[in-house]
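ok trying again, last paste got cut off:
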Amino acid sequence: MLVALDSLETGGDRPCDLAIVGGGAAGLGLALGLAGSGLEIVLAEAGDEAFEPWHQSFCAGSSIGNLPLDPETTRLRQLGGSTNHWGGRSRPLDAEALAARPWLGLPAWPLEAGELRRHLAAACRLLEIDRPPDEPWDAPADSDAAAQALGGPTLTPAVWRFSPPTRMGERWRTELAARADLTLLLDADLVDIELAPSLDRIQWLDLRSRPGKTLRLRPKVTVLAMGGIENARLLLACRRQLAAGIGNRHDQVGRHFMGHPIFEPLQLSLAEGARLPELLHDRDTPAHGHIEGLLHLNRAGQEALEATAVDAAFYSDGQFGPPGFRAARRLQRKLGHGQLDASLIRDGGEMLGDLPGLVHESLVKLGWLAPETGRLTVSTLIEQCPDPASRITLDQAVDAFGRPRARVDWRLGETDRRTVRRFARHLADHLAARGLGRAVLAPWVIDENLPFPPHGNSAHHMGATRMSHSPRTGVVDPDCRVHGMTDLYIAGSSVFPTSGSQHPTLNLVMLTLRLAAHLTRRLGHA
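nice, full thing came through this time. structure:
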């Protein structure tokens, strides 16, 4: 059943087996993964089915770190969450990404890679990723002789596969609404959590609609699936019974916030007659669906450079196009979200100042003009080294329900800077040694006294409620249960201890399906 909270005939208390708070990739993935479990489930989505400015305003917050991030435009408060604006780019975390990195002092994830991989086929189905279930993920790269020749001991060819992209709210709405075991509430904002006197379990959840109707939900188990920023914000804001917030006895909630900043540190001028392997182009294939190749800094390369993971791809004008095209995309997104402020004038001026770039890239995207292939920009997505000072805290400003807004202190650390610069130099030498052409490094790569340029924000919010064996080093245990709580779990990329260089959506759905299997066992249903 799908219904707005305000349309329920009665308020008061409502018991259920499981409450899922949040209707994005994690919340909907969990509900879909629990189909047939026999559990009575209530899923509370704070927004509506479609984008609505009033609901979206709750995402607003401040950004104070050296990596700017707009909390409002990088996430969506509506059914389907951020799958309503993701690009579909996907690659699963592997054993290498989950392993310890002694050269950086990074511990391993507290679970085996196989525990995620067993849910890969189901996650691909939910996200409509076209991949034969028995085909190795990187099969297109493994079978491409030219791509393998371009790789080496430190660089491994790999592929992204793509979801259409699936808007999960639209795609799975009918199936979820038809289920008798699930009540999907819209406009149902979690405003407070009441703990039992023992402070280790939940007595009830207070939900509120925009018109002010309330519902007290009494679940046996609760899962917060509100997103990489909002999960931490909610735990920190519940201070009425615990001064530091829920699950925050050791001051870990909100810390180790990570993203995937994107930089373009070098350009490659191809030698006469040289060309990149076909794998490194974005394309459809009859056997493998929609794919795009990349070069991955593998474990040997990371250790040699004392760096984190990096994924590098080659584009005729950068991953996001020339400045005018990027400004036009920002302008379109802000106008679509009803964001009317001074930044619109800046973006409009940048767009008009680069009309040739805007027109050229638009024609390329429309397929009316072939991309330039002689000079290529290398776009790098880096894995950030977890930093406890990079964090989510509470702002002085409050939302319409009186709760503190999120304050994001997202930081680019010295390890991150070293990773980008060393990787760029290493790749330049690697490409030259293979006779592909001449690589030109950006000035800020050569001169380490120069500041880093603005990053391309991937809007991947990870790590602020990280998974750990001990409550002294994280927020949830390997089953995603909040340390010190018996009945509270967290789903989504906020529990990632490290981010890898892989995009999070596919991986958080895999981890959520693992949680669905755990909850089915715990609650004792077939």
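cool. Residues 312 and 380 are 4 Å apart (CA to CA). Residues 414-433 form the longest helix (20 residues).
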